[in-house]
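#onboarding

Welcome to the new folks! Below is a worked example of what a typical request in this channel looks like: someone posts a single protein sequence, and someone else replies with the predicted structure as tokens. Don't worry about understanding the tokens yet, we'll cover that in week two.

Example request:
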Amino acid sequence: QVQLVESGGGLVQAGGSLRLSCAASGRTFSSYAMGWFRQAPGKEREFVAAINWSSSSTRYADSVKGRFTISRDNAKNTVYLQMTSLKPGDTAVYYCAASALTPRTTTSGYNYWGQGTQVTVSS
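Example response:
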């Protein structure tokens, strides 16, 4: 069992930056691939980024490639999402998720989810 708690969301102007954190409970955090997803009002939850257990492999949605960076610190049981050059289109609730499989880009590949943190980008 893994419990996930996101933090770091907020209101930022376009062009600004934010770093999201996701703290995980459980001694097996390092064995899970981790992902970030987001969901805007009226839209489906979409993949943002994922990282494997050793940080040797990462994946990004085309819409965030070059602007967002996913990383993890297994000693702290935490995964991060550094977001730069934010756009109003990045406004959404951001969720972290844990997968017992290799990093996936679909929600069905994840076993555990956090409650989400709101990110709002003003123009």
